[in-house]
Amino acid sequence: MRKELVKKSRFLSMVLRHKPEKINLDMDSCGWVCVNQLLKAAKLDIDTLKEIVETNEKKRFSFSEDGKKIRANQGHSISIDLGLKPATPPNTLFHGTARKSVDSIMESGLQKKGRQHVHLSRDKETAIKVGQRHGKPVVLVVDAEEMARNGHQFFVSDNGVWLTDKVPKEFINISWDQPMSCPVGHTIGKDFETRNDCFTGMCSFVMHQKCKEMKGIE
């Protein structure tokens, strides 16, 4: 996407996902708005809008089949029905986050918070990019196969984002593709032979009792 369109794309995300009332858009129950109304309200021309839709890296927007309507593919904080049907997920999905958020996630699981769903990625590379938006990235590995076996439903949006209502903590692990150091200075692969020696790899984020004992901390 051309640099000058990035700001416009972010604005479209805001009004089509969260605040259609900001520019007085009439959005239906499925998230669609009239293209002509959007063009006038957002002060865009049709060629620019088409370029944003076509070149957006995450494919956030879609036109209706007749081209007269547009909507965001996922990520809404307002209640809409995307018309998605339950789908069988791959065995493993990924979620990108920042290190500062890992403690709470490993304690409470992944929650949708203000959005309609928890968003999951098919590959680590996408998850890393998502995590980088929030700080130093960490990739969480979700056992989607086991979740589905336990009755959790999954959906996939038109732009390939996997969606679910929540991810309980027992289905989450951390991807360890690079050395990590814990709050007391231990490094996986140096102070510990395996990540399992240090709270199943969580030493990077949680002061594990073994690390406390080694450091003489109560």
How would you explain this protein's 3D organization?
It is globular and about 50 Å long. The protein has helices at residues 3-17, 35-42, 46-55, 99-108, 124-132, 144-149, 209-215; strands at residues 33-34, 61-63, 69-72, 92-98, 110-111, 118-120, 137-143, 154-156, 162-164, 166-167, 172-174. It starts with a helix and ends with a helix. By secondary structure, it is an alpha+beta fold. It has two domains: 3-72, Arc Repressor Mutant, subunit A, CATH 1.10.10.970; 92-174, ADP-ribosylation fold (Alpha-Beta Barrel), CATH 3.20.170. Helices cover 30% and strands 18% of the residues. It is built from seven helices and eleven strands.
Which key features would you list for this structure?
Arc Repressor Mutant, subunit A; single chain; ADP-ribosylation fold; 3-stranded antiparallel sheet; 2 domains; 218 residues
**Approximate helicity band:** 25-40%
Low-confidence stretches: 188-208
Radius of gyration (Å): 21 Å
Let me know the largest β-sheet: 3 strands, antiparallel
The total count of helices amounts to 7
Strand content of the residues, in percent? Answer: 15-25%
Computed structural class? alpha+beta
How are the elements arranged and paired?
Elements: H1 3-17, E1 33-34, H2 35-42, H3 46-55, E2 61-63, E3 69-72, E4 92-98, H4 99-108, E5 110-111, E6 118-120, H5 124-132, E7 137-143, H6 144-149, E8 154-156, E9 162-164, E10 166-167, E11 172-174, H7 209-215
Antiparallel strand pairs: 1-3, 2-3, 4-7, 5-10, 6-9, 7-11, 8-9
